[in-house]
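User: I'm curious what two different proteins look like when written out as structure tokens. Can you demonstrate?

Assistant: Sure. I'll show them one after the other, since each token string lines up with its own sequence. Here's the first protein:
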Amino acid sequence: MGWTVGAEAVDSDVAVALWRAYYTEVSDRWYLLHEGRATDPDELERGIAGSDGAELVPPGGQLLVARYDGEPVGCAGVRLLDVGTAELTRVFLYQRMRGKGGAAVLVAGAEDAARALGAARLVLDTRSDLVEARRLYMRLGYTETEPHNSSRYADHWFCKRLDVAPGSVREI
């Protein structure tokens, strides 16, 4: 069966569990790097509760879930920023699934979702400590650019043109 990627409601149990895992990992990594500790549990809960994922709901966005042999193991989101630009966000795979090719499949699914939303380019931001993410994006043809936002947690910004040939958009 292998890897599959499909649309998921942001409020599904699967999506909520993946959002919690993603947020916990990126928050803990930031705090460990900058303050030498994991995220305070109360702060972690506030952060998780602080995003309902509304920006990832059609028609302006889409949440995708990666599954391996049917088991949900990762996610990615896209949201329209303007008529031709979408942002890639929440790209995540459980640690035990990394290095198995799923990240490339997940990002390809997100690129297809962005095309389906009408985007001709996809932008994203990431942090310096997320070295593996930066390597992935460069390997997949993303180019480092000037900042497209003022996120406190962003150190690197990337962009990729989404070539859309007639009839090339796949349903997700």
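Here's a second, unrelated protein for contrast:
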Amino acid sequence: MNRRVFTNESVGPGQVMNVTGEKGHHFARVLRLRDGEALVVAAANGPHAAVVTSVDAKRGEVTLQIGDPVERRDPAVPVYLVQSFAKGDKVDDVVEKCTELGVAGFCVLPTQRSIGQLTGERLTARLARWRRIAAEAAGQAQRDAVPSVDWYPGLSALDGYLEDVQPGLLLLLDEQETTCGIRTALKEALTQSAPLRSVVLMVGPEGGWDERERAWLRQAGAQSITIGQRILRTETSGLVAASAVLYEIGELGG
């Protein structure tokens, strides 16, 4: 597996690309890449093979020549995670592990029973940290793109996020649900005539969803599901649910 270089630009065979800044320094001075080494450029138009043509260790720059497209590795059906804000480093773990798994994007937001608050400089710093974690995990997992990580001030602002990701299936992980399991909901969605566009999973805080939040989410089209008889921690629930989704759509080696 080759190392990944991520870019928001499109690339094409024969194109020359310079990697500078923190990533260039890492490749040139930490990993000590050499001429002729192979990489993959994960670009806006998909992953492409690339080869190192020059390395300037002093300046921390690496020059690549882009080759042909290579096989995509990210799930064909994107899975997004709406994660209630949790205290400590719990969201860090959610972003890291779910990025490795293949989650396409994260929306973190405070809910009624969330513990702790993020505002101002603390919010800016934490959001930057989550995005850095996502980028590092995406590289480690050989992803085709770095997942998006966004912060929304509450459920009332979530309409915009849902409009952006266009969920074909919106699943509310709810400890009060006892009849509809995640597997049943997925199988029903996958048997519909129209292809499944995307899946959004919604995970509540340590104390669970408030009744008003449940009502709002169901009004927004969310389907309440259970992921089993055991009550999982908020930082565990999203990983388990995303694993179940990716398994059912054939993205875990099936």
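A detail about the second structure: Residues 79-248 form a domain with the Alpha/beta knot fold (CATH 3.40.1280.10).
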